[in-house]
Design a protein that fits this description.
The protein has 345 residues and is of the alpha/beta class. It is 48% helix and 11% strand. The chain has two domains: 51 residues, Nicotinate-nucleotide-dimethylbenzimidazole phosphoribosyltransferase (CobT), small domain (5,6-Dimethylbenzimidazole Phosphoribosyltransferase, Chain: A, domain 1), CATH 1.10.1610; 265 residues, Rossmann fold. The strands form two sheets. Strands 3-2-1-4-5-6 form a six-stranded parallel beta sheet, with helices on both faces. The protein is elongated, with a radius of gyration of 20 Å. The chain starts with 10 loop residues before the first helix and ends in a 6-residue tail after the last helix. 53% of the residues are buried.
């Protein structure tokens, strides 16, 4: 993948934005996190008055060979069926993308079935990853290909004018892959990290835990090597999301990180280039148990907590209006001098 460096945050612009915020017609600090969020966005974009609209929603879809082990409540055919639902505009992420006026793109990087539609971006690497209990999920070449596809598709949306990136995913079995990756990265007890995913029973969750433990023992991934982690335990869509986030960071485009799977992907992106996380905002707390550990590893505090666990980028899309509100506060509010309001003595 393209090794262009990610620029450092523009702290000087951040100071200018902070000074301007403190001159607005309100008590200093009274808009709380919205004020610090505006400064972060200024530092990310290098603009005293950052613009985050229009946003882009970029979704990647892929199947996972580990579903052969019975780790999901849904059959893998649902991945292709949901891709068609996205393409017809009927999924939750379609609804929220329309609400915020986002460019919307869905990319097939590894769906097991053949999906054809005029609006589908077809970049299929393989018909699903391999079963990582038996063999590595991907080859090294496939891992880099997925990263590059993510980067290229993000770059396409940025060239079309996207000012903020939301990445999402669809892939039956991807909470198993994400839980395995996070268990290796954090060295936390698996019981603290795995959840019901798409609706597993207690018995099915025991199977999921056992499968992940076997996979980690068999694959022996290197926790300090993000490529090795992706290759052995990842998914094409997880790698593609990481590539997309790296591309956004290289272009000073703020990234709103979604839930559990997306946050694990964000950790991988940050392991590839530590500056990537400077351009990330956490959208929401997922109800998936492992998300708290993932957020702690990424070092982010989410904007929302709506007890959601759908994925797709939905939590990030719902957080976008708050992100945009921070920029509007900065650009549209009057200062004390402009409004003729006396300041505190």
């Amino acid at each position: 993948m393209n090794q262009v460096e990610i620029p450092l945050l523009d702290k000087d612009i951040g100071k200018e934005a902070k000074a301007h915020i403190d001159s607005l017609t309100k008590p200093i600090g009274s808009l709380g996190r919205l004020e610090s969020l505006a400064v972060e966005l200024a530092e990310m974009t290098g603009q005293k008055f950052p613009v985050v609209s229009p946003p882009a929603a970029l979704l990647f879809a892929s199947d996972h060979g580990v579903t052969d082990e019975g780790v999901s409540a849904y059959p893998k055919e649902v991945t292709a069926q949901m891709v068609l639902n996205f393409l017809s505009g009927g999924a939750a992420m379609n609804v929220f993308s329309r609400q915020i006026g986002a460019q919307f793109s869905i990319v097939d990087v590894g769906v097991a079935e053949t999906v054809t539609h005029e609006n589908l971006v077809s970049r299929k690497i393989r018909r699903g990853t391999r079963n990582f209990v038996i063999e590595d999920a991907m080859t090294e070449a496939e891992t880099y290909e997925a990263l590059n596809i993510g980067s290229e598709e993000a770059q396409t949306l940025i060239k079309k004018g996207a000012k903020c990136l939301i990445v999402g995913e669809m892939g039956i079995g991807n909470t198993t892959s994400s839980s395995a990756l996070l268990a290796v990265i954090t060295e936390k007890n698996l019981a603290e990290l795995i959840g019901p995913g798409t609706g597993l029973t207690t018995e099915q969750m025991k199977v999921k835990k056992s499968v992940i433990e076997r996979a980690i023992e068999e694959r022996k991934p290197n926790k300090n090597d993000p490529i090795d982690l992706l290759k052995k335990l990842g998914g094409y869509e997880i790698a593609a999301m990481a590539g997309a986030m790296l591309a956004a960071a290289r272009n000073r485009i703020p990234i709103i990180v979604d839930g559990f799977i997306c946050t694990v992907s964000a950790i991988i992106a940050t392991a590839i280039n530590e500056c990537a996380s400077d351009y990330m905002l956490a959208g929401h707390y997922s109800a998936e148990p492992g998300h708290q550990a993932a957020l702690e590893k990424l070092g982010k505090t989410p904007l929302l907590n709506l007890h959601m666990r759908l994925g797709e980028g939905t939590g990030a899309a719902l957080a976008f209006p708050i992100v945009e509100a921070a920029t509007k506060m900065l650009s549209d509010m009057a200062t004390f001098s402009e409004a003729g309001v006396s300041e505190k003595e």
